[in-house]
Design goal:
Layout (H helix, E strand, L loop, with lengths): L6 H25 L2 H8 L3 H7 L3 H18 L2 H4 L5 H17 L7 H9 L4 H28 L8 H22 L3 H15 L7
Helix pairs in contact: 1-2, 1-4, 1-7, 4-8, 6-10, 7-8, 8-9, 9-10
Length: 203
């Protein structure tokens, strides 16, 4: 995917990707039209094709932007995952977000996987990398907890990170389906209970 060589070009490309991301979030990847993207981005059809060969390439950029938005939006919380307090704070924040959204929206990355994962392998791979990075953040936090003694030295952080992310995603799907953030709360409470098994017995 070619990148602009000038700052003005980079700004235009970012504007187009932001507009496309908004349109996809509202109307879905299949229903998103290049004409509407161009209108929202104040970009002509020729400009769209200057930066993106076709709609598929634009959707690839949307996948990249979606990964970045989801992960960057949790950056300050990820930085605190190396303690039990930070782990629970992250989980609470995710639930609170769903409460503010009234259970709407689900996970943006998962939504795109559902829409595009079977249609384009490059986009699926890009979205999978977002989940991989998410899991890596959880794993790194758990590893810090092992190093500090908050979790036992034999804790399988790979397994716990994978199961925690799976609990999060499952909880988000159920929350979206039922419009009830309690589904996410229960799912994450289950993940936390599993992690708690590996806390050292200090009695």
């Amino acid at each position: 995917m070619k990148q602009p060589t000038t700052e003005r070009g980079r700004q235009t490309r970012r504007r187009i990707v932001a507009a496309a991301t908004a349109v996809v979030a509202e109307k879905g990847a299949v229903g998103a039209s290049l004409d509407e993207v161009g209108t929202r981005a104040a970009a002509s059809r020729s400009q769209l094709y200057h930066y993106f060969a076709d709609k598929t390439e634009l959707l690839q950029a949307v996948a990249e932007a979606t990964n970045a938005a989801v992960l960057d939006g949790q950056r300050s919380l990820f930085d605190g995952l190396g303690s039990w307090t930070g782990l629970t704070r992250w989980m609470d924040a995710v639930v609170e977000m769903q409460e503010r959204l009234q259970g709407r929206g689900g996970c943006p990355i998962a939504n795109l996987v559902a829409q595009l994962g079977e249609r384009d392998d490059d986009i699926r791979t890009e979205l999978a990398s977002g989940f991989d990075r998410w899991e890596a953040e959880i794993r790194a936090g758990l590893a810090e907890m092992v190093a500090s003694g908050e979790l036992q030295s034999d804790t399988d952080v790979d397994w716990l990170a994978a199961s925690t992310l799976a609990s999060l995603q499952g909880g988000l799907i159920l929350t979206q389906a039922h419009r009830d953030p309690r589904a996410l709360r229960r799912s994450l409470d289950g993940a936390l209970a599993l992690i708690a098994i590996f806390r050292p017995d200090l009695t």
